[in-house]
Amino acid sequence: MITIAIANQKGGVGKTTTAINIATAMAATGWKTLLIDLDPQGNASTGLGVAAADRENTSYDLLLDQATLAECAQPTDIPGLDIVPATQDLSGAEVELVSVVDRTARLRNALSAQERGSFAGYEVCFIDCPPSLGLLTLNALCAADTLLVPLQCEFFALEGLSQLLQTVERVQQGFNTDLGIVGVVLTMFDRRNRLTDQVADDVRDCLGKLVFDSVIPRNVRLSEAPSHGMPALVYDHNCSGSRAYIGLARELIGRLPEKRKAA
Ligand code: ADP
Ligand code: MG
Q1: Structure pTM?
Q2: Is 105 exposed, middle or buried (0-12, 13-18, 19+ CB in 10 A)?
Q3: Is residue 213 assigned to a domain?
């Protein structure tokens, strides 16, 4: 199983939208996919149609070692896509974990091959991170093989990114030496806006090949879909946003290691 954290400490840059739609696209391509909602706001859970009342075992239980992955993962309406949902409880985990041994390795341990046992055989796991660089995101970075960074084309985008990259370096020097960055994806791109275009050029100059060719346009269908409890890819598979995410998934698969690491 390859684990991909979707992180950026800024809120509203498209992490959750990317997590939902790329996970759906991967599942549709035949990858046995798991999405872990690691944001107390639970937007990924809601966006995939998991009602609050149906979130029995959550990412909180997983982090606090109160339930196993097998107990926390539940199927979604998308064939081949399971989710570990999140509830508000998760906001308490940040505080509760402070006094716990190995507090940054909780998720990593919960996802370890040993813990998973013969369960499920996931091939890819996405982690939807909260908008901060706190303990929850650190747990995601320590559990992940690699990082996917959604970046909104706005004026301070690069500044925010350098802070994230510093955190990644710290994690690489300490807890997770193997952590990679699979790519940066430009989100909410508006070709009529000259600033967006300029920022996109700057980001490509600065980061080169790290930036995916696929660009996610600003598209109202992407923002409507969650209120219907379904991925945009299901809500309107032919809208510009859905097509962009299908392209991104194709590119992402091309960047993953050859061998599909089944559990
Ligand atoms: P994050 O998880 O980083 O906070 P979200 O994915 O929740 O960001 O996106 C923030 C808001 O913007 C949501 O209301 C979402 O529906 C909307 N949104 C995200 N991506 C797009 C897009 N490409 N076009 C239009 N709206 C978008
Ligand atoms: Mg989010």
Answers
A1: 0.96
A2: middle
A3: yes
Ligand 1 neighbourhood includes 222 CB (under 6 angstroms): yes
Task: Kindly list the averaged pLDDT for each block of 10 residues, start to end, along the chain of length 263.
Answer: 96 97 97 97 98 96 94 97 97 91 93 70 96 96 97 87 93 94 96 89 93 97 98 98 98 84 46
The answer to whether position 127 is within a domain reads: yes
* CA 150–ligand 1 middle distance (angstroms): 10
- ipTM, two decimals, is 0.99
Torsion angle of the four alpha carbons 16, 21, 27, 31, in this order, in degrees rounded to the nearest 10: -70
Ligand nearest to the CA of 40: 2
Nearest CA among 71, 194, 50 for reference residue 128: 50
The 3 state secondary structure assigned to the chain is CEEEEECCCCCCCCHHHHHHHHHHHHHHCCCCEEEEECCCCCHHHHHCCCCHHHCCCCHHHHHCCCCCHHHHCEECCCCCEEEECCCCCHHHHHHHHHHCCCCCCHHHHHHCHHHHCCCCCCCEEEEECCCCCCHHHHHHHHHCCEEEEEEECCCCHHHHHHHHHHHHHHHHHCCCCCCEEEEEEEEEECCCCHHHHHHHHHHHHHHHHHEEEEEEECCHHHHHHHHHCCCHHHHCCCCHHHHHHHHHHHHHHHHCCCCCCCC
User: Which amino acid type is present at position 57?
Assistant: N
CA distance 226 to 93: 25
Has residue 261 been placed in a domain? no
For the chain, the domain total comes to: 1
160 lines ligand 1 (CB under 6 A): no
Q: Name the residue range of residue 90's domain.
A: 2-255
